[in-house]
Automatic annotation (TrEMBL), chain A:
<feature type="region of interest" description="Disordered">
    <location>
        <begin position="263"/>
        <end position="313"/>
    </location>
</feature>
<dbReference type="InterPro" id="IPR036890">
    <property type="entry name" value="HATPase_C_sf"/>
</dbReference>
<dbReference type="InterPro" id="IPR005467">
    <property type="entry name" value="His_kinase_dom"/>
</dbReference>
<feature type="domain" description="Histidine kinase">
    <location>
        <begin position="314"/>
        <end position="564"/>
    </location>
</feature>
<dbReference type="InterPro" id="IPR010808">
    <property type="entry name" value="CheA_P2-bd"/>
</dbReference>
<keyword id="KW-0902">Two-component regulatory system</keyword>
<feature type="domain" description="HPt">
    <location>
        <begin position="1"/>
        <end position="103"/>
    </location>
</feature>
<feature type="region of interest" description="Disordered">
    <location>
        <begin position="131"/>
        <end position="150"/>
    </location>
</feature>
<keyword id="KW-0145">Chemotaxis</keyword>
UniProtKB/TrEMBL annotation, chain B:
<protein>
    <submittedName>
        <fullName>Chemotaxis protein CheW</fullName>
    </submittedName>
</protein>
<dbReference type="InterPro" id="IPR036061">
    <property type="entry name" value="CheW-like_dom_sf"/>
</dbReference>
<feature type="domain" description="CheW-like">
    <location>
        <begin position="4"/>
        <end position="145"/>
    </location>
</feature>
<dbReference type="Pfam" id="PF01584">
    <property type="entry name" value="CheW"/>
</dbReference>
<dbReference type="InterPro" id="IPR002545">
    <property type="entry name" value="CheW-lke_dom"/>
</dbReference>
<dbReference type="InterPro" id="IPR039315">
    <property type="entry name" value="CheW"/>
</dbReference>
Length: 698, 153
């Protein structure tokens, strides 16, 4: 069978499962006792194992198999989660991700996982605890005590049986020490019991007893209608038994069984070895900081409308579509939009009633179609955000910091092309926030802050833009520190430094080769990063704003366009040439009289705008336009554009009007043409260039 | 075995030039061109080629020859090379001929005023006609022009 056709499906689903595993593991870390989460994790791991085995990825399958073993024990209460298990499982997930990544890139998905497998196996066998504790017998007793506890399923059976008027017996059988065939004797006991009722649970498990893997005795939970005395008599018929204790259990006994088992096991521990106690206590503070950030992540996730948990229950009815097909659909649609505009013009000229009506209908239908196609390309930012909680957890742990990570607005949608690109810059900013922003625990306490720092990741839509904010309540940015550093690096001259606004100072952070971290850490602080973040976001048509209060925290605000392919623009002319400028960067349009223009030396022209004076840029001069010059006009049409805090007026010839235009690239040959971000095709088939206002405001 | 090559033949002035047929997407008549400011003089601008925006360059200008008025014969040859799609404005484009790779000889220093590095070679064909084969990679190489301009500046 050729499996290649299933490969892409496998990769998609494997990634989904890994994502789910990661999320639920984090959830479990905050609520280690919630067995229902373990069930979900177990199912995901199991499916992943099956898929990998079918596709022939043996390493993937064997690792998931080992994970499954551990999870199975946790699920059946034979094992309780602790730090070591969490770390090992997270490491396994990382290894799985790496393998799936390898497969995605055409590899075989092979990896050396022996170390992780060994750790997982040591968890299953309980060996890892021996390594930790000084006394081996204590841990053995612990496991035996634990194995006698009931899981939820068994308990409910016992409870139901009691309610149905049956007897529930706890039978403890001790074999004689000189007993030769222990397994056979035990089998006989089971044989006898099976005539009178049903064995719900045995400790050790029945298969271990069959294989002689027990010491000298075993205990059984037994449901029967037979009276205690008769049962005792029947079991007593089996020879070579040292003792048989049968206890008739009440509902209360069943309910409290686990608790009692725990008590037994802790008291056993205490008496057996005092050396274990410090070890256990040492574990506790270690697990506390890791659990707390996860728990708040959980709480936050529930608050936000895109809470993952309830969504998981309702399976979305979706199909997977190759993104290339969506791109083709988008291209075809933009072709159609061009024809639509042309049809509108023709109908306007012909003034024929029927034609006009049909064209109007076409316009409505095609704009609905445009909306739908655009929506189809929209993906919730959750796709990117969902991997951050894990990253922040790991990072905070490695830095010994306590961090609450709160995500809001994960359901905010953005164009797929933007989503694909935004991940890396956000990783940079989040790493910075945890590493440089949030202070160490001691420092926070010294400052009188709560020892847990908060990092918030917010996404929301506003107009044609999506804003992503990363806020932390850490150091804040020290203006003087940046300035002295910038002067040392020669980025800013000392006389200029004093006149810079705070925002301008913060923007220095984005200059290349700039880092204020005192120490270079493993995570960040090498002075590369923020400049890359800025250029990446700029290439997506967005920008970054920094707000900060010293000692209180910093917020990075990333503004991004909703979509990259269709935009509202203002069309205008310069003589015979037509240009478009995105509406998003236009503040307003207007007229100025020639006499109102102030001239500074060096030929710079300024105009009054509101309460300030802004530069007037001559587009015709900038673009060497032969057919028009604003110098000859008495009254000049202007477009006020904005980039951040800066404003400027562009002198143009005439306004044509607002239009939805389809952004087309100029082609690779003309890539990076200054001042031009692309082109669009107008209704009459002509190409109009789209002006990049950001480049003009430099 | 010599390799058979199909070549699109076009003219600039008196000379005949060739581009391998598989590099040529289409040949178009002149159409309205939108000027792109802040580019080299020989880049005439962009055209709308059935919904795709394609830059066009004046091949005469690219090779430093005097530019002439466009006529009825003027054609735009759309070539695709190395992820780039560009239109070449040429005086005329006549036909497609077959040559073999053996026919192509290394170009002398300068042919018809064009530096040898822009040329793949020269091929004889028909009754003593000379075909100058273009080296598209060099013709479309912009970084080299930028270097030149910086030297001059």
């Amino acid at each position: 069978m050729d499996l290649n056709q299933y490969l892409s499906m496998f990769i998609d689903e494997a990634n989904d499962h890994l994502q789910a595993l990661n999320e639920h593991m984090l959830e479990l870390e905050s609520q280690p006792d919630d067995v229902s989460i373990v069930q979900v994790i177990f199912r995901s791991a199991h499916t992943l194992k099956g898929m990998s085995a079918t596709m022939g990825f043996e390493d993937l399958a064997s690792l998931t198999h080992q994970m499954e073993n551990v999870l199975d024990m946790v699920r059946n209460h034979q094992l309780s989660m602790d730090d070591f298990i969490f770390d090992t499982l997270f490491r396994s997930l990382d290894a799985l991700e790496a393998m799936v990544g390898d497969i995605t890139n055409g590899g075989e998905g092979k990896a050396d996982v022996t170390e992780i497998v060994a750790s997982l196996q040591s968890i299953v066998s309980g060996d890892y605890k021996k390594e930790k504790s000084a006394d081996e017998s204590a841990s053995e007793q612990e496991t035996s005590a634990q194995s006698e506890s009931l899981d939820e399923f068994q308990r409910s059976i016992l409870e139901q049986s009691l309610e149905a008027g049956m007897h529930v017996y706890h039978i403890r059988v001790e074999l004689r020490e000189d007993c030769v065939l222990k397994a056979a004797r035990a089998y006989m006991v089971f044989q006898v019991l099976s005539q009178y009722g049903e064995v719900v649970k045995s400790a050790p498990p029945a298969q271990d007893i069959e294989q002689d893997k027990f010491d000298s005795g075993f205990s059984i939970f037994f449901v029967s209608q037979t009276e205690l005395e008769q049962l005792k008599h029947e079991v007593g018929q089996v020879s070579e038994l040292e003792s048989v204790e049968i206890k008739d259990m009440t509902l209360e006994d069943v309910r409290q069984w686990n608790q009692r088992a725990d008590e037994v096991h802790t008291s056993a521990k205490e008496t057996a070895a005092t050396a274990v106690k410090p070890a256990v206590e040492q574990d506790k503070p270690k697990s506390a900081p890791t659990a707390s950030p996860a728990s708040t992540t959980q709480a936050a996730a529930k608050k936000s409308s895109a809470s993952p948990a309830p969504n998981k229950a309702v399976q979305n009815r979706t199909i997977r579509v190759d993104i290339e097909r969506l791109d083709v659909l988008m291209n075809l649609l933009s072709e159609m939009l061009i024809d639509r505009v042309r049809l509108e013009q023709l109908a306007g000229e012909l003034k024929q009633h029927d034609l006009t009506e049909t064209v109007e209908h076409l316009v409505r239908v095609s704009s609905d179609l445009q909306n739908i196609v655009l929506k189809m390309r929209m993906v919730p930012v959750d796709v990117v955000f969902s991997r951050f909680p894990r990253m922040v957890r790991d990072l905070a742990k490695s830095l010994d910091k306590k961090v609450d990570f709160i995500i809001t607005g994960a359901d905010t949608e953005m164009d797929r092309t933007v989503i694909d690109e935004i991940g890396d810059p956000l990783v940079h900013l989040l790493r910075n926030a945890v590493d440089h922003g949030v202070e160490s625990i001691e420092e926070r306490i010294a400052k009188g802050k709560s020892e847990t720092g908060t990092v918030q990741l917010r996404a929301y839509q506003s107009g044609n833009h999506v804003f992503i904010e990363i806020e932390e309540d850490g150091h804040g940015i020290d203006r003087d520190k940046i300035l002295s550093k910038a002067m040392k690096n020669g980025i800013v001259s000392p006389d200029k430094a004093a006149s810079l606004s705070d925002e301008q100072v913060y923007q220095l952070l984005f200059a290349s080769g700039f880092s204020t971290a005192d120490k270079v850490s493993d995570v960040s602080g090498r002075g590369v990063g923020l400049d890359v973040v800025k250029s990446k976001i700029a290439s997506l048509g967005g920008h970054v704003i920094v707000e900060s209060k010293l000692g209180q925290g910093t917020t990075f605000i990333v503004q991004l366009p909703l979509t990259l392919s269709i935009l509202s623009a203002m069309l205008f002319t310069l003589g015979t040439e037509k240009y478009a400028i995105p509406l998003t960067s236009i503040v307003e349009t207007g007229l100025v009289q020639k006499d109102d223009i102030r001239r500074l030396h060096g030929g710079i022209r300024m105009i009054d705008y509101r309460d300030s004076v802004i530069p007037l840029l001559s587009l015709s001069a900038l673009f060497d336009c032969a057919s028009y010059s604003d110098m000859d006009e008495d009254e000049i049409e202007i477009i006020i554009i904005r980039k951040g805090e800066r404003l400027a007026a562009l002198a143009v010839d005439d306004f044509v009007g607002q239009n939805e235009i389809v952004l087309k690239p100029l082609g690779n040959y003309l890539k990076n043409t200054p001042g031009i971000s692309g082109a669009t095709i107008l209704g009459d088939g002509q190409v109009a260039l789209i002006i990049d206002p950001n480049a003009l405001l430099k | 075995m010599a390799e058979e090559i199909k070549v699109v033949v076009f003219t600039l002035g008196q000379e005949e030039y060739g581009i391998e047929v598989e590099k040529v997407k289409t040949i178009e008549r002149m159409m309205p061109i939108t000027r792109v400011p802040k580019t080299f003089d020989f880049i005439k601008g962009v055209i709308n080629l059935r919904g795709v925006v394609v830059p066009v360059i004046e091949l005469r200008g690219r090779f430093g020859m005097a530019e002439e008025e466009h006529t009825d014969q003027t054609r735009v040859i759309i070539v695709a090379h190395d992820e780039m799609e560009v239109g070449f404005i040429v005086d005329s484009a006549s036909d497609v001929i077959d040559i073999t790779s053996d026919d192509i000889e290394p170009a002398p220093e300068v042919v018809g005023g064009i530096q040898a590095k822009y040329l793949r070679g020269v091929a004889k064909f028909g009754d003593n006609r000379l075909l100058i084969m273009l080296n598209l990679a060099e013709v479309l190489n912009k970084s080299e022009i930028i270097k030149l301009e910086q030297l001059e500046a």
